[in-house]
Amino acid sequence: MTPTLVFDIETIPDTDGLRTLLDLPTETCAEDVANIALHQRRQHNGSDFLPLHQHRICAISCALREGKNF
Q1: Cβ(55)–Cβ(13) under 8 Å?
Q2: Smallest Cα–Cα separation from 34: which of 12, 9, 51, 53?
Q3: Of 18, 19, 31, 38, which residue is least crowded by CB atoms under 10 Å?
Q4: Residues 6 or more apart in contact with residue 49 via CB below 8 angstroms
């Protein structure tokens, strides 16, 4: 059996960058920044998935399977 290596990256909205990009006041909380950005994205293209450069990595994981070993 061919070994299989799988990677997974989890991201969250980069609220610091979005606050600057959207010219929001510094006191705007991270949750509100994310909600504003997601709402604007939904209005623009029907999906709230932000462009990759507007994400921050919060977890990276991998798994290796070789035969019966995981």
Answers
A1: yes
A2: 12
A3: 31
A4: 41
